[in-house]
Amino acid sequence: MKTVNDLRVKIFADGADKAGMLEMYKKSFIKGLTTNPTLMNKAGIKDYGAFTKDVLSIIKDKPISFEVFSDDFDEMERQALKIASWGDNVYVKIPITNTKQVSSCPLIKKLVSRNVKLNVTAIMTLAQVRDVLAVLSTNVPSYISVFAGRIADTGRDPVPLMSDAVKLLKNNPKAELIWASPRELFNIFQADEIGCHIITVTNDILKKLSLVGYDLDKYSLDTVKMFYNDAQSAGFNIEQ
Questions:
Q1: Which domain range does residue 98 map to?
Q2: What's the Cα-to-Cα distance from 4 to each of 1, 11, 81, 139, rounded to whole Å?
Q3: How far from the centroid of its chain's Cα atoms is residue 7's Cα?
Q4: 28 is a domain residue
Q5: Which residue, 146, 128, 134, is CA-closest to 200?
Q6: Is 235 within a domain?
Q7: What is the number of structural domains in the chain?
Q8: What does pTM read for this prediction?
């Protein structure tokens, strides 16, 4: 099987814990980073601007995505321009719609015309991919984030959709497809197999990279030992 070094898909670390982000940033196989308001809220971040600028004071040479957080398109535009001004390596995340399910495509087109690098997020259908591609520029780098993990959560196999999305993006050499919200390490290899450009991976999944290619007989024994040791630690006993 392939090793991590054999993979063509670029691995982006996904998170909002500063220490974890910086730890992943230092690893050569991490090619970029992403975060979002939900992750930032879970991490207890209260000052969006201060956190973002603090991270960008260290991470300057790898792409990193930060998301707008308004539901009003005019305010989204203002936020996007501000966030983009904080670093040349910044991609601004724009959700595919607002909470009223109004398309963000007019805003995306406007921002691209101002050379803002975008990461269009929360996409789950090929129709949405087509709509975004129609307004992106072939001169401005961009990411299209399809939430394959959430698609899988609905009982659907995301691979056919992601494969079709890869084909659609061939018409725009500046646009890269992101396999977003993976649920397991194997998703990295699935993304690589279909030619997906990028996969965003959380730290808990990234920690499993050391298991890639691990001998299954040894892994079986490790598991048996884990069960045994935990039973001993708990002091389990069945009376005669």
A1: 4-211
A2: 10, 10, 36, 31
A3: 17
A4: yes
A5: 146
A6: no
A7: 1
A8: 0.94
How does 28-41 read in b/e, with b if 16+ C-beta sit within 10 Å? eebebbbbbeebbe
Distance CA 190, CA 8 (A): 11
Which residue is it, tokens 């959380």? Answer: 202
Nearest to 66 by CA among 18, 111, 16, 31: 16
**Which segments in the chain show pLDDT lower than 50?**
none
Per-residue pLDDT tens digits for 141-186: 999 999 999 999 999 999 999 999 999 999 999 999 999 999 999 9
Which segments of 15-100 does DSSP mark as H helices, in order? 18-25, 37-42, 48-56, 73-84
Query: How many residues are present in the chain?
Result: 240
In a domain, 104, yes or no: yes
Q: Is residue 220 part of a domain?
A: no
Distance CA 182, CA 188 (A): 8
